[in-house]
């Protein structure tokens, strides 16, 4: 056709409406996907309203992941055929989504590994959140008293590599232990019993994320809780009760309470 009577858009105007390049429209014309209904006397492409509507449908199907070679058949097919094709395409897309989710999880795992490999350092705010507002003073005292020991070095390395999730889990474990200790004390759980051993082992588990802890070391820590009023913040009136439980368990395991060593 050489009459421009029903043509409305030049290739540039059609490209702007469809938000594609003129090169894309030329390619679609070359493969027979979208051939403009009109040509000007100078053989320039002219697109009708119907052509632009077809272009929009092409973009919809392309956005749904349908290959260009299949779009023409899809647009020109009967309604029943289109339904079958689209159902198949949906299945393909669902499979792709599942695969992409697996890839995302794999990347997340790699990122987590990289974070730990680089030795993520906890901020001062992180540590105060976990260990309490007096942490800076305790940290300085610990450095002065035990800074040259292997346990202190291990403790600092473990804390430095804790992730936000590790921090939250450790804090929750500590809070849970305080509740368990208080409940055991209120229930009259006697030192040396099976229930008492469970409490002692839970206490050991709350400390172990920060340093290697033996039963002997646990006795020394429990004694320090009683001797140092600052630990009342953590265990309140249960410090002495915890010491009684720990010493009874240590004695049952053959530890000489009169000669406990940090080992």
Automatic annotation (TrEMBL):
It comes from the Bacteria. GO terms for molecular function: DNA binding; DNA-binding transcription factor activity. The keyword Membrane does not apply. The keyword NAD does not apply. Residues 8-77 form the HTH merR-type domain. Pfam families: MerR, TipAS. Keywords: Activator, DNA-binding, Transcription, Transcription regulation. This is Transcriptional regulator.
